[in-house]
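Problem 12. The chain below contains 102 residues. Write out its predicted structure in token notation.
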Amino acid sequence: MLPLFQLSTRIYDEEIMLVNNAMVELEKQCNVSNGFTLGKPISKLGWTTFNLQLSLEMETIIEKSGMMEGALGYKIGEQLKNFLGHFLESKGSNVRIKKIGY
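Solution.
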């Protein structure tokens, strides 16, 4: 199963650009092409949610390269979620991230 995360924001137009740019940068760091997919946005009650799916290759590189070192969590999926959340935050994004599938 490919890692799938749900991102939520109140300012989608700004956040989608920040998330996309951050993920492109992460792809370059991992030396992967087509490493992620952003899903279509769904707006409800002032919040917009969209999915972020990582490719198996990108997930494996992140996991084995030591990038997640220091990410909190008991299981790999939780650590990956926390790593992505901190990575996106370091690039200026304020999205909330939730693990849907791992």
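Discussion. The chain has a mean pLDDT of 90. Students who got a different answer should revisit the alignment rule from Section 12.3.
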